[in-house]
Amino acid sequence: MMKTKRVFLTRILHDFALKELKKQYEVEVHSGKIPIPRKKLESKIKDIEGLICFPYDVIDSKLLENAKNLKIISTYSVGFDHIDTKYAKKNKIRVGYTPEVLTDATADLAFSLMIDVMRRVSEGDRIIRKGNWSQIYGAYDYIGTDLQEKTLGIFGLGRIGSTLAKRAKSFDMKIIYNNRKRVSKTKEKSLGVKYVTFDKLIRQSDIISIHVPHTSQTDKLFDKKILKKMKKTAFLINTARGKIINEKDLIEALKKKTISGAALDVFESEPIGKNHPLTRIQNITLAPHIGSSTKETRVKMAEITVKNLHLGINGKKPKYSVGY
Ligand code: DGY
């Protein structure tokens, strides 16, 4: 069989996924600098029918203007804020993404970050590694905060937010949420959550966990003004997108103890290096964008990424499709 359709991947994917793609398409994988240099992507996009990309690849309209043959952009992520989906739709380029399969993994990470920062686990690890654990078991040593009976405020009650609520319920937490649209009473009841306005969520929560996409409405939403409204004892958890928080304002809030702590899996710009100002703050846990990073989940994401690509390149709607 002559392979006429060309697929380009901006980074290596699992072997099984590449094998599957190579059965039907002419496949090229970018190796070398990550993210792929813009110029290279600009030149590749001209000839291909299918693109597999990652959440840090900027797939904007300027790039897509040259994508004359492109039928499908299949991103290996649930987030698609890196893709100009409006332009893609207008130009009949389908966009596939990978929701559902990473819901548990991401909710688990949000929950573990919450426990970590509230019980100061990573902070303790840093103390030991620096050789600063000098006395055992003092009444006031390394005091954390209980989760039980605390109010968890979930910002965005989609798949991941809802799954986090289930985790929190079994830890006897009170759960409030804010979402663009209030969910059904049945869902509220089964999850044990109460709808509140955004302002109440900010003021009443002992912990706020962010689970909304990054859009023009959520860009830098958590800024000085919002952080100031939070309880002094509160924690902020972000496993969604870094740009939802104004990092400079968060650093100041943590230094001044405007809030008690934070745990971040995502950052304004990634990766962050060891000299980033966030690394000099103690009341924060940092993770290198690992929300979906379990072996089981990443395999499922690769399967869906390939499936979405197959469907889209053949003129069909991807299994998980943005737009059309
Ligand atoms: C995604 O899939 O968008 C997540 O950020 C990965 O952890």
Structural overview:
- The strands form 2 sheets. A 7-stranded parallel sheet has the order 8-7-6-9-10-11-12, sandwiched between helices. A 6-stranded mixed sheet has the order 2-1-3-4-5-13.
- The model has no long low-confidence stretch (mean pLDDT 97).
- The chain is 35% helix and 15% strand.
- The chain has 12 helices and 13 strands.
- The protein has 2 domains: 6-99 and 296-322, Rossmann fold, CATH 3.40.50; 103-286, Rossmann fold, CATH 3.40.50.
- With 324 residues, it is of the alpha/beta class.
- It starts with 5 loop residues before the first strand and ends with a strand.
- It binds (2R)-2,3-dihydroxypropanoic acid (DGY).
- (2R)-2,3-dihydroxypropanoic acid binds at residues 55, 77-79, 102, 289, 291-292.
Strand and helix layout:
Elements: E1 6-9, H1 15-24, E2 26-29, H2 38-45, E3 50-53, H3 61-64, E4 72-75, H4 85-90, E5 94-96, H5 103-119, H6 121-129, E6 151-155, H7 159-169, E7 174-178, H8 185-191, E8 193-195, H9 198-204, E9 207-210, H10 224-229, E10 235-238, H11 247-255, E11 261-264, E12 284-286, H12 295-313, E13 321-322
Parallel strand pairs: 1-2, 1-3, 3-4, 4-5, 6-7, 6-9, 7-8, 9-10, 10-11, 11-12
Antiparallel strand pairs: 5-13
Bound molecules: (2R)-2,3-dihydroxypropanoic acid.
Entry summary:
With about 325 residues, the protein is an alpha/beta fold. The chain is about 35% helix and about 15% strand.
> First CA to last CA: what distance?
30 Å
Q: How would you write the strand order of the largest sheet?
A: 8-7-6-9-10-11-12
Full CATH superfamily name of the largest domain? NAD(P)-binding Rossmann-like Domain
CATH topology of the largest domain, what is it called?
Rossmann fold
